[in-house]
Amino acid sequence: MTRAPWLVALLVALACGGPVLGCAGDAGKLGAQGDPGKDGVDGIDGAVGPKGANGTNGTNGTNGTNGVDGAKGATGSNGTNGTNGVAGVDGVDGTNGTDGVDGTNGTQGPAGLGYVALEPAGIVGFVRDTARDAVPNAVVYLVPAAAIPSAALALTSRRAREHGR
Hints:
By secondary structure, the chain is mostly loops. The chain contains two helices and no strands. The N and C termini lie far apart (186 Å).
């Protein structure tokens, strides 16, 4: 690529700090390339660029093999009871069994109507008057036969009546 000669002269003058000349002539031929210059110092790292878009998902892998069965779990709670089934048909009556041994006698029952129950520590009965009617709240004293005089007593005095003489 060829450059205009006046542009080259301007660039050289500006680079050297000299005055800009207004002369122009044919440009000479380019000289041979000079030796390469020294390497410059490394530049600083630039800022991190923006995050790129997510890539597409990869394809799914194949299924793995099944693992071994785990330990048996605890027994679950009992379920609710079901409804009752339909009753079956009555069976045939069986034969009677043999009679058992006689049982022991029961305790004495209460006295019948018109009788007084026996007491375990004494005599019981009714006190009746001469008309054979019951005498309520009567008191009976038992006296040994030896204490009863055999002779008849005359109950003529009050003292005799009080002491039974």
